[in-house]
Amino acid sequence: MNKRNTIKTMTQIDKVAIITGGSSGIGYGIAESLLKEGYNVAITSRSEERALQAVKKLKGVGIGAVIGLEVDVRSFESQTAAVKEVLEKWGRVDVFVANAGVGHFASITDLSLEEWHETIDTNLTGPFYSIKASLDALAASKGYFITISSLAGTNFFEGASAYNASKFGLTGFTQAVMLDIRKLGIRVTTIMPGSVATAFNGHEISDQDAWKIQKEDIGELVADILKMNARSLPSKIEIRPSLPPQK
Asked: Hey, what domains does the chain have and what are their CATH numbers?
């Protein structure tokens, strides 16, 4: 056996994670971190091309394997098919990170019906479909379900009626789900980041974003949560930049 295979045998943990919206931003940062921890990771995106591009970049990161799947989180059938494909490939699901999200920011006077429905269907109904699709697999592995909410899930602001509604709903939804399924041995956490340096909502990342939370910071946080003793449950975590710029 060569040295590389020996190392893999000693450190591979043979656990499997699914991350929705994993082709960029926070989801990509989580995928990168879990691959370094030895997880096999499936990332999803509405765009198969973006998913496969992300897989190319993630190849060789850590020792876990990575695949990309085209999934629309607004479709229960699409999420169910993804879980089935992962089970067929790796035989288990240990972690499901419901990360995919969109943001439409406008006054209620300008917010369209389409923007409202896309926000709610992606940010709130999407995680509902995620846990329904993965529940049996997570119960079998005594696994972990994580949602990526936002500080906007407890703090409302002007021009964010749809986004606030989706994230307030996601925060409450996740906490209720935690109470529902902890008896099955499934742990549940919602992470609520503040300002994160990503291309979310068309933002162009620059040096001026250095003060913000970085995607790898959220990745490290997820990895740390998964290492905690199963007797302890950090059910809701707020994370914000340490020192925002002065206004």
From this structure: 13-194+204-239 (3.40.50.720)
